[in-house]
């Protein structure tokens, strides 16, 4: 018997990077995966990977930033009898640049996906989880849930808010049998960081120097932390923000 046998997990933004690795890890632990992404091709590719190892995964295309689309997505789950008892709010985008040049459109886009999306999905999921008194939600934060960086106002603000949302919801929903935690990754080798490095907006060598372990994280290491927080062995953990960052946020020095 695998630790998540009989569970159904919705992972948002699961078509790439951390979301994909998380979907794979949860599937390997026995959960059926509802693979959400705004890109259908990406979602289907993740499902194909999981399918090859005998796991169960179904793609669902929707933008988490659109409350109507999120409501419709959960109504599909209701109709299909696939109510998630695990939700991983992973979908997220970066937002780099000087604040004085930050447009309303860019600000609203980052807030819409990184923060509103987690709220919309959590609310729909918890409405259903509270009926069964069984549920766990893991939000993907960042080192920027904890510490600040210049020229990343929308990203840092939304990730800090995600850490607080985690604690608020953990308190409010504990009596309903729902746990809410947050995994806060440091810089991870992913499509997102590679794009930023290619655009000259991230200095990989400097990041490695700044990290006590002198390397970026792997998406699979973030997935392992999420997996732990979804399993019954973490049953007494709720409202926690777990750094998985090679020591980045512990480091107050160079
Ligand atoms: N990569 C890092 O270094 C790093 C570090 C800390 C935190 N994070 C966080 O981890 C999460 C995943 O990051 P990643 O590096 O794997 O990114 P990624 O770009 O590789 O993957 C993000 C996925 O989300 C999807 N997506 C984007 N907008 C969406 C929307 N509106 N609705 C549904 N899906 C949407 C994308 O299509 C993509 O497949 C994000 O929340 C990010 O902020 C990443």
Automatic annotation (TrEMBL):
Q: Name one GO biological process term.
A: monocarboxylic acid metabolic process
- InterPro entries, per the entry: NAD(P)-bd_dom_sf, Sc_DH/Rdtase_CS, SDR, SDR_fam
Family matches, as SUPFAM superfamilies: NAD(P)-binding Rossmann-fold domains
User: Which Gene3D superfamilies does the record associate with it?
Assistant: NAD(P)-binding Rossmann-like Domain
**Which Pfam family, an example, fits this chain?**
adh_short_C2
Where are its TM segments located?
none
Q: Which family does it belong to?
A: Belongs to the short-chain dehydrogenases/reductases (SDR) family.
User: What is the protein's name according to its record?
Assistant: Short-chain dehydrogenase/reductase SDR
Q: Which organism is it from?
A: Novacetimonas hansenii ATCC 23769
């Amino acid at each position: 018997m695998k630790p998540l046998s009989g569970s159904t997990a919705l992972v948002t933004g699961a078509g790439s990077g951390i979301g994909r690795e998380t979907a794979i890890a949860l599937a390997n632990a026995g959960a059926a995966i509802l693979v959400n992404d705004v890109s259908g091709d990406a979602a289907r590719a993740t499902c194909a990977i999981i399918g090859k190892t005998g796991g169960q995964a179904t793609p669902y295309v929707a933008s988490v930033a659109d409350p109507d689309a999120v409501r419709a997505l959960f109504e599909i789950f209701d109709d299909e009898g696939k109510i998630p008892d695990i939700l991983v709010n992973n979908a997220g985008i970066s937002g780099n640049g000087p604040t004085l040049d930050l447009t309303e459109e860019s600000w609203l886009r980052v807030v819409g996906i990184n923060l509103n999306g987690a709220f919309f999905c959590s609310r729909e999921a918890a409405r259903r989880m509270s009926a069964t008194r069984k549920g766990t939600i893991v939000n993907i934060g960042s080192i920027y849930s904890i510490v600040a960086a210049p020229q990343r106002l929308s990203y840092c603000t939304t990730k800090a808010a995600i850490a607080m949302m985690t604690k608020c919801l953990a308190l409010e929903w504990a009596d309903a049998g729902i746990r809410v935690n947050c995994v806060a990754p440091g810089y991870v080798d992913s499509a997102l960081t590679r794009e930023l490095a290619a655009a000259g907006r991230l200095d990989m060598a400097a990041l490695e120097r700044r990290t006590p372990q002198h390397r970026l994280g792997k998406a699979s290491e973030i997935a392992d932390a999420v997996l732990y927080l979804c399993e019954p062995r973490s049953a007494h953990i709720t409202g926690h923000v777990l750094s998985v960052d090679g020591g980045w946020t512990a480091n107050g020095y160079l």
